[in-house]
Structure formats: C-alpha cells, structure tokens
C-alpha cells in the first residue's frame, strides 16, 4: 500500500504541474504576425525590370512600392563584398549608388515576400572601344551563307574572345552569341532561330543606351518580325541601309545609298552580320529607289528561290510587299491585286503599308 500511495502522489503532482501548460498549448493565444505583401521597386515612374543596366557613377533613387497594410518593406543590397540593409527614406525612396562596375543584387522584402533584382553597372565607353571586333565580321561578310558547324564555332570563339578581352558584361556577350547563333540556325533551317533572335533581343535591349551594335541588332530583330515602326525608332533615321529598307516598307520614299556588302555600318562604325536574303532585300530597295526596277526584280527572284514559306513566314510577307512595289512600275493591275491581298496580312505594319499605298493610288 505504501508503494502504491507513493506512486499515486507522484502521478497527482505530475498532472498538477503540466496541466496549465497543456491547456495553454491546446488553446494558444493568437500571435501578432507580420503579413507578407507584394513589394517592388520603381525607377522614374516605371516598375523596374528583374534585370537592369545602369551607368557607372549613377545614384539610383528608387521608389519602394508595397501592399498597404502588409509588413514594412525592407531593401537589401548584395555584392561581392557582402550584404547590407539600405535605408528607406520618406516617402519610400531608397538611394542605390552605382560605385563599381560589375553585378550586384537588390532584394525588396515584405514579410516572407522577396523580390530580387539583378543590376549590371557598366562604363559607357566600354562599348565604343572595340577595334578588333570588326575583323571577324568582315571575314565572314562575304561568305556567311557558307558557315559550317566548325567554321561557325571558330567564329563564335573569336568574337567572344574579343568581347571578353574588352571586359564587357557577360549579359552583353551572351546577347551577341545568341544573335549569331540565330543567324546560323536560320541559315541551316533550324526551327528555333526565332527563339535565338528573341533571346538576343531580350539581353541586348538593356544595352541600347550604351552600345550601337546592341541598338542595331535590336532594330534588325524588329525588322525581321515586320515591326517596322519600332525598328525605325531604333535606327534613328533612314541614313543607313537598314534604315532605308525600314522606311521603304513603311511606305515612305527613300533616297539611294549603294553598297554591295552583307554588313551594315552605323554610328560607331561597328559592322553587323545579317541574313543574306535580307542583304539582297536592302539592295533591291536601293534599286527601286534608284529606278532600276529590272535589277530589283532579279534580286527579288533570287530571294524567292532561297525562301521557304513554312520557314520564312515573315520574310515571305516582306517579299510579297517588295514584289508589289516592283510590279507597280511594270504591271499596275497585278500590283494593285497584291496590295489588296496584303491589306489583310497578319502583320499589321505590312497591312498598313499596303493600305497607305492604295490610298495614294486612289487619290492620285
């Protein structure tokens, strides 16, 4: 009995000691937690993109925008030195100095929500001092349509080496590589060439304020997509061969500027490789504006022989518009029929150019 009683006393004391805690655990008091909310950074009135490029020496005054009622936002900066919290001044402004060229990250947080940004800081003159870049482009300008896998890889290695030796951002180098890979794939009828151009544009458009070659490649991307209005804004006038072709396809008169090269010079003098069919199109445009319609017709026929409708949908539409302009001088009835058909083109810019031309005809 004494042993049983002893054990009973221990049992009673145990339940007396743990019961309040058990009750508290089963019915916990509500905790005040920070509610997560969306937060992002705004630069000059626009929501900042996930990847951005800024010039060395700039001070970025960014606006922190967060969900009302959510946890107070914070902004951290992380670079190769470490990670630090930035001060957010009233009314929600955070100042970020671009003190060193290279890459750093910003993290905007609210509760458990985190928005990351990759910031590239560049020196503007980095992109204008590339004396060796032109050489591999010149070497390929006369026989780019004869690329083999081996010769293309050698070309890529050469270009990449020159860009890396100039300490250019990796993002820029990747854009240049993707552009040339797009040219190679289009030449070899590889279906993903559009994706390659799009990827190149996605990288290089960030460098348009700093690099003429980035601006030209982005303009050519929009030209290839039959987005002539956007392309014309990037070429800054119709002084170049590409600018003349873009203006022509918008339905505007252009003046002649003869050249037989398969590359373009603009601004800094950096050349640009492009698809041979487009180089011939530029020559056909020059022939039309110079009144050499027979030559233009021969060039259009050459382009047609090297064009596959299933592969070159956008180019087929441009070629038909080019043909309509050529025929307008030799076969007015056939030309008007083509323009009427192109009024219903799925590419709005081509449909608008055809509509504009028909209005000119109707109003004499």
Description:
It is a single chain. By secondary structure, this protein is α+β, with helices and mostly antiparallel strands. The chain folds into two domains: 39-122, Immunoglobulins (Immunoglobulin-like), CATH 2.60.40; 134-362, no CATH class. It is 50% helix and 17% strand. The chain is built from 13 helices and twelve strands. The strands form three sheets. The protein has a five-stranded antiparallel beta sheet, with no helix packed on it. Helix 4 (170-187) packs antiparallel against helix 5 and helix 9 (276-289) packs parallel to helix 11. It is elongated. The chain starts with a helix and ends with a helix. The model is unreliable at 254-269 (pLDDT under 50).
- Integer-rounded radius of gyration: 31 Å
Give the oligomeric state of the chains in this entry, treating copies of one chain as homo and distinct chains as hetero.
single chain
| Total number of distinct structural domains | 2
Query: Can you tell me the overall shape?
Result: elongated
Strand content: 15-25%
* Widest β-sheet, arrangement of strands: 2-1-4-8-7
Structural class: alpha+beta
* Order of secondary-structure elements: HEEEEEEEEEEHHHHHHHEEHHHHH
Tally the helices: what do you get? 13
Mean pLDDT: 84
Low-confidence stretches: 254-269
Helix content: 40-55%
Our measurement of the CA-to-CA distance between the termini, rounded to an integer number of angstroms, reads 123 Å
How can the largest sheet be summarized? 5 strands, antiparallel
User: Total strand count, please?
Assistant: 12
